[in-house]
Specification:
alpha/beta; 56% helix; 409 residues; 8 strands
């Protein structure tokens, strides 16, 4: 059994100052009122262009973000590598769907692929497809082209409609999106850099699925370069995983799959209710956990056809994957299998798994302070809502503070 309570290993990379800073930060994030006040303060400050870096950089930013630019993440990457942990650099700037925003996201992702080529500490690159297209046009295209959010029949399945023809404007936007999407995959393949295609909301996901599937067939002949993300809180994703496996046999490629539980649960349920189609989200957390672990088991069982990225903070799923690897007789550092947690969170999982020889990487956001604030606010809210996880983090930090004090006596 992996020991996720070994705080000496979990915080082996943190100085005394960093340890106290993390403890103070998680202590504040326990309280909904503090997070709500901070969110309101940030929103007002952004509207009036009040500088926030002085307040954010030493606190939330330092805990959850690697730096403002790729080069400023090098120290963090090197520090993680000392403990056998690799990195995934994620450009986490968030903005609108303007042409300038789209071009910025595309160009920054290209830079990250080129950067990864020269830095072996990086295990994967990543991008969000929604950053490459106007979100309203993307939703319109996906809804009409894939016909999954309109009328639903008595069997719960979409009612078929005649083929949809995009307007000239929509076709132009789609062509531009597809060109950018494919060029990122092509560049990653050229450099031999693995690339994760993030999953997002249910409405637009079929558009991303289709292009990711085509990318895997094109680039994953000898190893997985392109990785498709499956959000396992969706009821259909285990069946989709099995479909991907059949697809590998038909087209002769190695499937790259990234598993996460999912990040848009309440929004997905609300949209399903408003638009009159069955919710795609599991009814209970237990159902999601069951599907997630079933996906891990299926992939390890057929590992000759897969490479896997296990993106979770869940203790049981990480323990279960370690058991599957050992039971299958695979090397713990088999390059086809990685586990990952977000930078600044669940270090007790990351560092203890890495110490036992399993492949681990940290998802490291980077972006200027003002562009990464929405991400930081979500991290703060996430830790507030997940009281059990926050309390565990605090208890681990407190234990390590006491251990170090005792060791100095």
């Amino acid at each position: 059994m992996l020991d996720f309570n070994n705080t000496q290993k979990a915080f082996s990379s943190k100085s005394q100052y960093e340890l106290y800073n993390a403890y103070l930060l998680f202590s504040m994030m326990k309280y909904q009122g503090v997070v709500t006040f901070f969110k309101g303060f940030v929103n007002v400050a952004r509207k009036v262009h009040f500088p926030l870096a002085w307040a954010v950089k030493p606190t939330l930013y330092k805990q959850f973000v690697g730096g403002e630019q790729l080069e400023s993440c090098i120290k963090t990457m090197e520090n993680l590598a000392r403990f056998n942990i690799k990195s995934v650099l994620d450009y986490s700037a968030e903005g609108g769907g303007t042409k300038a925003d789209i071009d910025n996201m595309y160009n920054e992702t290209l830079k990250s692929i080129e950067f990864a080529k020269d830095h072996p500490q990086i295990a994967y690159t990543v991008f969000k497809p929604s950053g490459l297209i106007d979100p309203e046009i993307c939703e319109a295209l996906a809804r009409k082209m894939f016909n999954h959010t309109d009328q639903v029949g008595p069997d719960g399945k979409p009612v078929e409609k005649p083929a949809y023809t995009p307007t000239p404007e929509e076709q132009k936007e789609y062509d531009s999106f597809k060109e950018k999407f494919n060029s990122l995959l092509d560049k990653a393949a050229e450099y031999g850099v693995r690339i994760l295609v993030d999953a997002e909301d249910f409405t637009c996901q079929p558009l991303y699925d289709q292009l990711a599937e085509e990318g895997m067939r094109r680039h994953n002949k000898k190893r997985a370069i392109v990785f498709q993300t499956l959000q396992m809180y969706r009821k259909d994703r285990l069946d989709y995983l099995k479909w991907i496996h059949e697809d590998t046999k038909q087209y002769g490629y190695i499937a790259g799959v990234k598993f996460v539980r999912g990040a848009y649960m309440e929004e997905e349920r609300r949209l399903a209710a408003e638009r009159g189609y069955p919710s795609p989200i599991c009814d209970t957390k237990a159902d999601t956990d069951s599907l997630y672990d079933a996906a891990l088991a299926f992939t390890v069982e057929h590992i000759e056809d897969f490479e896997m990225f296990n993106g979770t903070h869940n203790y049981r799923s990480n323990q279960y994957l370690a058991e599957l690897i050992d039971k299958k007789g695979l090397n713990r550092n088999d390059e086809r299998i990685y586990s990952s947690q977000l930078f600044g969170m669940s270090d007790n999982i990351s560092y203890n798994m890495a110490a036992e020889g399993y492949n681990v990487c940290k998802y490291i956001p980077y972006a200027p302070v003002n562009r990464v604030l929405p991400y930081l606010l979500r991290r703060a809210q996430e830790n507030t809502s997940m009281a059990g996880q926050t309390n565990r983090a605090l208890n681990h930090l407190k234990t390590e503070v006491k251990r170090r004090k005792s060791a100095r006596k």
